[in-house]
Amino acid sequence: MNVVRAYYVLNMKMILKEKLPFIWSTLLPIIFLIANGQAVTDVMHLNFFWSFIIMSSYVFGVGLHAVRLREQGLLKTYFSINQSRTQFFVANILTQITFAFFSVLTLNLVATVIYKLNFFLSMFYSMILIVMALPIAFLSINLTMIKKSTFNTVNTVVTIIFFISLMLINMTGVFNYLNPLLYTSKLLAIGTHIDILIYVFSSIVFILSGLFCIKKYEVNSIMRR
Known about the structure:
- By secondary structure, the protein is mostly helical.
- The chain has ten helices and no strands.
């Protein structure tokens, strides 16, 4: 547990030093929220912005973060202290849960001030979404299995996908059916037995695939060997 805590503290210090995660995961959705303000009349209208923040935190902060540290050769220091890959990823996930919490907190405060929404209700639903979307953090660990791409390449592709998904917020059509943010935002609307079964099955698959990738995670840079 002490190792997880040490990794967690180190990760939080790294986040506080870097401005890009805040700009991308917090400031950008707030800008889009204000730009699409005419559509915000209810707390549940924020779920798309919550899903952007949460998915960004999990994908960039867990999967891509692990790829970046490996390709920069920083993991030798990490694992010279402790060899447990599980503790390393647990700390990363806890870090991103914390970051996602403060990001949605900021967005909810802005929405409350500007659109007079119920702050406590928005925090309640956004916290539920953070928990329900947790399997995505495990799914993102699959990115560490990519053998032929550098971190910059993978990061660029994922960034483009996220940005386009956010741009499609108010659009309808066939392209939006492929929008990952749309499916994540709909987790709060799960109600039927079929929806629950699909969610449970998908979550199990995501988590198991993530655990498998953790076991296979390579500490040494793939591109430098």
